[in-house]
Design brief:
There is one protein chain. With 273 residues, the protein is α/β, with parallel strands linked by helices. The protein contains ten helices and seven strands. Strand 4, helix 5 and strand 5 form a beta-alpha-beta unit. Helix 8 runs antiparallel to helix 10. The two termini are 30 Å apart.
């Protein structure tokens, strides 16, 4: 049974493309562990990573914490994370379990850091913040961080990116009934919600960036890994085919066979209990 406040449609949105997601999406930057450990002032004994997907933000803590738990309700995404975990020799310090952000099933005061990487906007915020605060120890940290889309490239391609995303959402609105659509909360409201929750004594936003290497295939793959695009592709009908073809052509023109350093901007909102 799905706990109150969660929507099956939000889980279904990320079903069936775990391999593409894991292949093209950025790994969480190491700076995340450095920033949060600095605020904590010690090595964390337990980090809980909510909506961890394929573990791109969970394995980050492998050497930076004594233990880390990735919590992911989607079987496909969690299965990919477990596949990678097994390839590493099934380390005891890392585990992946099914669960929801507002019903973690963990003891009170058991964690020192709770993170949401690219995921808090898919969670009911009030109940998630309350549950995160419940499992955090005094002085523990809740951190929601996201990268800006698209990665920095050039105006014409970035404009095509936004047009593709907007068309995807328009198609979804037209073809999927309101009650069956995924619902996301505005990322710009994350910090306000953390402050107004009453669960944290300190809150702030940190803005930073990370450099990753991209070629045309990866840049296009990042775009096609967006949940709205994947939803439309699953629906069938080919509404996006022409726009995707134009987008791919422009990206390939820009990269021209090259692999380039590409800037990903990040925004982290954190609260300290």
């Amino acid at each position: 049974m799905i706990p109150e406040g969660n929507r099956l449609s939000n889980i279904v949105r990320f079903t069936g493309f775990q391999n593409e997601y894991d292949r093209y999406r950025p790994e969480a930057p190491k700076l995340v562990t450095e920033l949060l450990t600095g605020y904590l002032k010690r090595r964390p004994s337990l980090v809980v990573d909510l909506g961890c997907g394929t573990g791109l933000s969970t394995f980050l803590w492998r050497t930076a914490a004594d233990a880390v738990i990735g919590i992911e309700p989607g079987d496909d995404m969690r299965g990919k994370a477990l596949e990678k975990w097994e390839a590493l020799g099934s380390p005891d310090s890392i585990s992946f379990i099914p669960g929801y952000s507002n019903a973690l099933g963990l003891p009170p005061g058991s964690a020192e850091i709770v993170t949401c990487s690219q995921s808090f906007h898919w969670m009911e915020p009030s109940s998630t913040l309350k549950e995160a605060a419940r499992v955090l120890r005094p002085g523990g940290i809740f951190a929601a961080y996201d990268c800006d889309w698209p990665p920095v490239l050039e105006p014409s391609i970035e404009t095509l990116y936004h047009e593709l995303i907007e068309q995807s959402e328009a198609i979804i609105e037209h073809r999927i009934p309101d009650g069956e659509r995924a619902v996301k909360w505005n990322k710009d409201e994350h910090l306000r919600r953390i402050k107004e929750s009453g669960e944290f004594t300190f809150a702030r936003e940190i803005v930073f960036h990370n450099i990753e290497r991209c070629d045309a295939e990866r840049y296009v793959g990042l775009t096609l890994s967006q949940g709205g695009v994947q939803t439309v592709l699953r629906l069938g009908g080919g509404e996006l085919d022409e726009r995707i073809a134009v987008y791919r052509e422009e990206v390939e023109r820009y990269f021209n066979g090259r692999t380039l350093e590409t800037l990903f901007g990040y925004r982290m909102k954190l609260g300290i209990k």
